[in-house]
Amino acid sequence: xxxxxxxxxxxxxxxxxxxxxxxxxxxxxxxxxxxxxxxxxxxxxxxxxxxxxxxxxxxxxxxxxxxxxxxxxxxxxxxxxxxxxxxxxxxxxxxxxxxxxxxxxxxxxxxxxxxxxxxxxxxxxxxxxxxxxxxxxxxxxxxxxxxxxxxxxxxxxxxxxxxxxxxxxxxxxxxxxxxxxxxxxxxxxxxxxxxxxxxxxxxxxxxxxxxxxxxxxxxxxxxxxxxxxxxxxxxxxxxxxxxxxxxxxxxxxxxxxxxxxxxxxxxxxxxxxxxxxxxxxxxxxxxxxxxxxxxxxxxxxxxxxxxxxxxxxxxxxxxxxxxxxxxxxxxxxxxxxxxxxxxxxxxxxxxxxx
Length: 354
Fold this sequence. Notes:
- By secondary structure, the chain is α/β, with parallel strands linked by helices.
- It has 2 domains: about 15-40 and about 270-354; about 55-265, Spore Coat Polysaccharide Biosynthesis Protein SpsA, Chain A.
- The chain has helices at about 15-20, 20-35, 65-75, 110-120, 140-150, 210-215, 235-245, 270-290, 300-320, 320-354; strands at about 55-60, 80-85, 105, 125-130, 135, 155-165, 195, 205-210, 250-260.
- Strands 1, 2, 3, 4, 5, 6, 7, 8 and 9 form a 9-stranded mixed beta sheet that branches.
- Strand 1, helix 3 and strand 2 form a beta-alpha-beta unit.
- The chain is globular and about 55 Å long.
- The termini are far apart.
- One of its GO terms (molecular function) is glycosyltransferase activity.
- It comes from Ructibacterium gallinarum.
- This is Glycosyltransferase family 2 protein.
- Belongs to the glycosyltransferase 2 family.
């Protein structure tokens, strides 16, 4: 399989073009103004209790299309390790779809975090490499992850790149620089790098964690993660924050990669709207629950809503129709969240007065 050209930068330069340099800098200053220091416990890395091999874990809620290709590619690119499928539904089984040599286990409770934790409990290897059921593994992706972990004893999480092949012609709903709405994750560097910021944390279809470290923090937080056809995620980001609070490192190994073969039916405006909204709401939850080191209170949410409204006004004069649509989705999501938080705060204040 030939490696695809990088299609998105973590620096998201397109956002600067879309929002305007002044507004982007202003938004960055507002973000920095909300920062509060992260408390680091600096825990020693737990000793491995399992063989230093890679267990590729594919969680699926029963999506048949692509599962066999995903499992076969993982098996091919994980020499010396295992491939484990977690069947996240109470009925049926994937036996007929799986190549010989692939194990599977059942997790009846719906939800990606439950499935990931089940896979972690049943896996044999110390390095757990999670891969989506609609992805195809890149050349030697498992050995690249394993070597990175062995060279970086303080790394608890290491991710790889996620390339997004786009349909031809490219759907008009795909705004350049926003391929991450379909789980693309690519980086502008070629060597392993430790990352520190939320926007740079790896996620999704090429996400690896040490089993010993995962068990030390209690697994993926099970109040996060997608359930069914929902859009909410955030369990990988919450986990990365937990690892950093313990003093462990989060890294990216660019030479490990997968190709994420998204169903063409997902390239819709509804998908954009729901994914943008879910991202904003999930980041708020990460702040509220003490994972992210910011304070997205009512006042801050109102500022973001008003800033998005100002940017939308500018884009209506100078931007494209699709840029306006994206910004409107952002403004509406912040407005919805601000209203919900404001009403909750008002109700709490009223209860206190009574």
